[in-house]
Amino acid sequence: MNAPSVQSELARQHVIDPEICIRCNTCEEMCPVKAISHDARNYVVNFEICSWCNACIGPCPTGAIDNIRNVRKDQPYSLADQLGWDVLPGFTEYDNMAVGSATTEVPDEVQRITDVATAGQGGQALAPWSASHPYVNLYGPNNPVTATVSGNYRLTAEGASSAIHHVVLDFGTTPFPVLEGQSIGIIPPGTDANGKPHLLRMYSVASPREGERPGYNNLALTVKRVTEDHDGKPSMGVCSNYVCDLKKGDQVQVTGPYGTTFLMPNHPGASIMMICTGTGSAPMRAMTERRRRRMNQKEGGELMLFFGARTREELPYLGPLQQLPKDFIDINFAFSRTPDQPKQYVQDLIRARADKVAAMLADDNCFIYICGLKGMETGVLEAFSDICRARGMDWETLRPALLKKARFHVETY
Amino acid sequence: MAINYDERIPNNVELSSNKTLQRALEQWQPSYLDWWREMGPDNSTNYDVYLRTAISVEPNGWAHFDYVKMPEYRWGIFLAPGEQNKKITFGDHKGDDVWQEVPGEYRSTLRRIIVTQGDTEPASVEQQRHLGLTAPSLYDLRNLFQVNVEEGRHLWAMVYLLHAHFGRDGREEGEALLERRSGDADNPRILTAFNEKTPDWLSFFMFTFATDRDGKYQLASLAESAFDPLARTCKFMLIEEAHHLFVGEQGVSRIIQRTCEVMNELKTDDPAKLRAAGVIDLPTLQKYLNFHFSVTSDLYGAEISSNAATYYTTGLKGRFEETKLADDHKLDNSEYEVMDVAGDRILSRHVPALTALNERLRDDWVTDIQSGVSRWNRVPEKLGVNFKFTLPHKGFHRKIGMFADVHVAPDGRLLSEAEWTHQHKNWLPSEEDRLFVHSLMGSCLEPGKYANWIAAPNRGINNKPIDFEYVRFN
Q1: Domain count, chain A
Q2: Does residue B7 contact residue B77 with C-beta atoms inside 8 Å?
Q3: Contact (CB<8Å) A215/B2
Q4: ipTM of this complex
Q5: Catalytic site residues of A?
Q6: Lower CB count within 10 Å: N or C terminus of chain B?
Q7: Domains of chain B
Q8: CA geometry: angle A270, A277, A253, nearest 5 deg
Q9: How far is A310 from chain B (nearest CA, A)?
Q10: Distances (CA, A) of B277 to A278, A347, B251
Q11: pTM, to two decimals
């Protein structure tokens, strides 16, 4: 093989280790796209068909399935190659090369949005060790899944200056597995000013993994109607207005799921600190709801929420949040535009609860999630920094340590 | 299809909508837990074990890993998702809709099939209950416990079917499943192989390799059943069963590897020297294989069986991978070759395929087990040791079927009683062999440490390192 001139000629190939595989057929049974087959000797994965949904990974009893080789796109290991293996082929020079973005499954716009959203983390994030294994990229812009709107409710008061909607999408019989913290893409219908189809927009899932309604193949989104741009100039968001105007029974083109790191820990005793503003509450609602539904399991671990909005009327999910037991979740609301009250931001409340925040920062079982407008990021990080300094800790050394343990997750936009 | 954990019995069968059934199972649950405490793994109730628990039947939900105390394991009732308009794929009812309820005329037969399958599940937990005291590593201990809790769940699956579809009889059978005891002279388990002891870890690995593989083939043929709840139950159980096969195949493979390593270090193949060095010589491993292969072979029943034919024509039990086979799926006019003993010769003859279904399933199992043995053989080959494991002849050491009344050598020769008496200890583990293997068993429970007679695995569970603390003893 000649070395490829550009990395985009490379692709990742999913292969099965014939030395470890016990030929139990579980992967073949599990594969939703029938990419896995076998003969009397080996189980093999068809490079052309495998969609990287990873449905085979968890169920494999041996781990044999969890192997990847970088290959030239035009020269993957064929089925005949794989059927003849007694051992996996060794790594090649390609395995040391990054596979070019042109070959990744994640659509470019998803990658771009994600890069911007996670910039505040200050480094590469990992999923918590006890997070469940996420599915990603089951559906792309070329093969979106059609979901049906089964509910659309305005969450904020009618008079409030921002209109935030709770939208429930039902996937019928099409598999669309998501975890709390993941996002989906929505492709608005029609074309843009240049006559091209609209790019997809990403929305965090606001419901837990088993559905907005348990046992149903549905999920919820928290979507704010965008009527002005970041600088405050009037601007109607194409997708948000489309989504907020959806009626029950309407059909929506959905891609995803996306997101492999902003995922909740699942082990008993895990604490979660959630800091959000506005629709950044979507993943927090998903995680809180997940924990609420499992409350009777008494798994322990604290939930602490810092939630900012301009006024009470603009805070989504205010009512249900207030009804949660105090020993289940420690809620701190910050309102920045309440008449006759001093402006209060989430970072002010974080400072006010400095002792507990510091203890949680120091606790390896505590995982921290920040989601909301970019504007909140600086203030929150400064608050962390101050709290650390006052206690002889150094935020600049703590943050990389948190990242390494997958305890610090930021998504801001 | 999510599993509802808010109820006392996690399930995806909408148990809460059938209050009578729910109450019946809720009454059975405490008896089950009593049984687990009495007959489950010794002294293990307070351990935190890194276990896989099904939290839904979808691919992403059924392999959920976490520390669990075994009595708190979420045993529940999970059926593989149903298919709409599913049709019966074989037998006289081929092409009809599958049954959601038990047809009256097949009631007692189906009940017997389910009870027989169900009885093996608690039996194997009982057989293995003392093994935890001599685990060769934390990793292996965890694997043992995983197998145990899943056998427990399989019992739940069968008891659900009995309670849901067989009324009072079913409930009584559910109680009886908790009352029989493996190896008990007065109230033994139904099948002979499940009354044998599992006295040491080599036996455990051989058992999971050979006998749990019988489980795989029985479940796979029941997963074709016209009785849809049984088919869907077995389909989900099969996925769990794969781990048990892995434990056995990989366990023996690691023993072979360790022995070959020591053979190379000491430059010897003398069993006495190898035993002195604390590893199990390969000929002894071959004897254990012969034993477990032959005892498990008997579980398939007689070569010619009218019961098996009836199960098939009535749609109760299909063949392995029934829908992938290209024939008429009725078998009225086909034949199958079986072995027979005629005087002093073993020959083969053609019989109606319907009556030979036991033999056919046994043959499918033999093919599968042979490929496992071939994979074992790669280990000595790779390490430059000249030794090949082989499966004995199908007639060797059989207690059921054509060969029950004769003696057959591993190579297929018919033997006289005197020859058998004289030679069988060369082929089956002797008391001395068993004592030796037993002498190696001792607990080795430091994370990352493995007993001298077994190699470390080449990867951990769920991508955890091999020195991960798979069990915490508290």
Answers
A1: 3
A2: no
A3: yes
A4: 0.71
A5: 203-204, 371, 411, 413
A6: C
A7: 15-472 (1.10.620.20)
A8: 90
A9: 37
A10: 69, 66, 20
A11: 0.66
